[in-house]
Each structure stands twice: as structure tokens, then as C-alpha cells.
Amino acid sequence: MKHSWKITAVLLIMFIVTQLIGLAVINAYIPVKETVIIDGEEQNRTINPLPYGMEPPEVKPQVSLISIIIAFVLAILLILLLTRIKAALFLRIWFFIVVILAISITLNSLFLKFDTSYATLIAALIALPLAFFKIFKRNLLVHNITELMIYPGIAAVFVPILNIWTIIVLLILISAYDIYAVWHSKFMQNMAKFQINELKFFAGFFVPYTSKKEREKIKFLKQKYKNKVPEKVLKKQRIKFSLAILGGGDVIFPIIAAGIFLKSFGLISALLVTTGAVVALAALFMVARKGKFYPAMPFLTAGIFVGMLLGWLVSLI
């Protein structure tokens, strides 16, 4: 096992909580079809309650898949370029805007049952300081709490424009890319180091921890400096911190897959997809070894596919 039982449990719990929040948010934003009378004729229309102009266009899922793949490739190329030229400020502003929007979408889903015209504004006002402390201030608690809200909001935008077949293709492509990026190009490791060292945040769950011996050192230093240990003292003591991380992509794609099953077959089928992802991630944590990096998406995709099969079978009953 790469991390201790406690740290592994923390990552798994955060993953599970995010998946469940994601299903709740997606359920709140599932498009509603209604019949209206226009010029004396009945017409069917779809109402999509997504806020901030995020309502998806009426396009075929295949077209959406191609658009997502193109956007993903362009985003990777842009990140590579910005990383190469060390445009840290631009990247932080970019992430700041995305975080505000994603958290706002998640929070706004809580207000849909209330008849208020200020719901989107209230959600944005709450999201703004959370995004600021996440991106521009280093606070571990705020970072991980906001991660619970970011991926459900992003997933809610993509679920309406995809279907079962397109998410299957997308998961296969993302898994292949993850294998290449982790085991061959090392892009994922380099990007994670750049985020942590240069941007001062990480797009994913982030849990630093130390060994028992190192914790005793820190406890002694806190007593000596009255809980305010200077950073240069920590560096001089060479206290080693280990990191348990789970990338944002590894969190969001299972939410999208479960969300598509939620709108297609219902809650039970969606929960089976989520269960498959959780079991696969737990298995990865069990077989992972210290000092090695693993692409999580191939494992998650396998678990999601098993969950999809079970969810489809349950829907036939």
C-alpha cells in the first residue's frame, strides 16, 4: 500500500462524498421536458436549469464528444505552453475563474427549490471568497472542501450533452491518455509538481502527511516556537513530508458516467456505477507501492464499466 490506512481512508471518503454530491447536483439540473402552446399549437421544449448561461446547445452526443476531445487537446496544449513559459499568474487567474463558476453551479443547485431571483448571485458571492482562499492563499482545509464542490459543478455541465456510448468512448480515450501521460511522457507528474511548487495549489485532493518520527520533531518545534515555526527552521530541520494526491480528472469522470446513468436509468443504476468506481480506486490504493506513480483512470474505467453493466441489468428488472 502506497499510503497508510488512515490516509487512504481519507482519500476514499473524499472521493465517495464528491461522487454523491455530484449525483445530487446533476439530479437538480436534469433537463425537464414540457409542452407549451405557441400560436395555438402544442410544442415540446426542453428546459435546462443550469445557471450562468451554461445551458448546453441542442447537438447530437457524437458532436459533443468530438467537441470535448478537441477542447481537451487544446487545453492540454495551452497548459503545456503556459507551463513552459512559467505563466503562473495567468494559470492561477484561469483556475480562479473556473473554480468560482464550478462552485457557484454546485451551490446554486441548493436554491432551485426556492423561488428566489437572487439564487445565482448568492451562490457566486459564496463561491468568490472560497475560490480566492483556494487559489491565492494556502489553506489545506479550504482546498479540500472546495474540491468537494468543484467537480460536481463541472460534471453537471457535461452530463446533458453526452450519452452512454459517448461516455464509454471518452473513458477509453482518457484512460489511454492517462497511461501515456503517467508512464511514458511523465506529463502528469511534471504538471503536479508545477502546480504544487509554482502555482501553490493542486487540482485534486491533496493530503500531506509525515511519519511518526517527523511528527515528533514538529511537535517539539511547535512547543519551542509557540506554535509558530518559521519556514526556514523547517527547511533547516529537513522535515520530510509525503503527499497523498488524487487528480481532479480521476474524480470528475466517474461523476459524469454515474450522472449519465442517473438520467438514463435512475438512481440505483447510477449508484452501481459509483460503487464500481469506488471499488476500483480502493483496489488501486491497495496494490500501489511507495515511490511509484500510477494512472488511475484505467482502473476507474474498468470499475465504471462493471458498474455500468450491473446498472443496465438492474434497469431491465
Provide the fold topology:
Blueprint: H1 5-28, E1 32-38, E2 41-47, H2 61-84, H3 88-108, H4 119-136, H5 140-158, H6 164-183, H7 187-199, E3 204-209, H8 212-224, H9 231-237, E4 242-247, H10 248-265, H11 267-287, H12 296-316
Helix pairs in contact: 1-5, 1-10, 1-11, 3-4, 3-5, 4-5, 5-10, 6-10, 6-12, 10-11, 10-12, 11-12
Task: Provide key terms for this protein.
mainly alpha; 12 helices; two-stranded antiparallel ribbon
Written overview of the protein:
It is a single chain. With 317 residues, the protein is mostly helical. The chain has one domain (5-30, 48-316). The protein is 69% helix and 8% strand. It has helices at residues 5-28, 61-84, 88-108, 119-136, 140-158, 164-183, 187-199, 212-224, 231-237, 248-265, 267-287, 296-316; strands spanning 32-38, 41-47, 204-209, 242-247. A two-stranded antiparallel sheet has the order 1-2. It has a two-stranded antiparallel ribbon with strand order 3-4. Helix 1 (5-28) crosses helix 5 (140-158), helix 3 packs antiparallel against helix 4 and helix 11 runs antiparallel to helix 12 (296-316). The longest helix has 24 residues, at 5-28. It starts with a helix and ends with a helix. The model has no long low-confidence stretch (mean pLDDT 83).
In short:
By secondary structure, this protein is mostly helical.
Question: Largest sheet at a glance?
Answer: 2 strands, antiparallel
Rg (C-alpha, Å): 21 Å
User: Strands of the biggest beta sheet: in what spatial order?
Assistant: 1-2
Please state roughly what percent of the residues sit in beta strands, choosing from under 5%, 5-15%, 15-25%, 25-35%, 35-45% or over 45%.
5-15%
Low-confidence stretches: none
Q: What is the first-to-last residue Cα distance? A: 39 Å
Tally of strands: 4
| Morphology call | globular
Q: Please report the number of helical segments.
A: 12
Oligomer category: single chain
Could you say how many structural domains there are in total?
1
Helix content: 55-70%
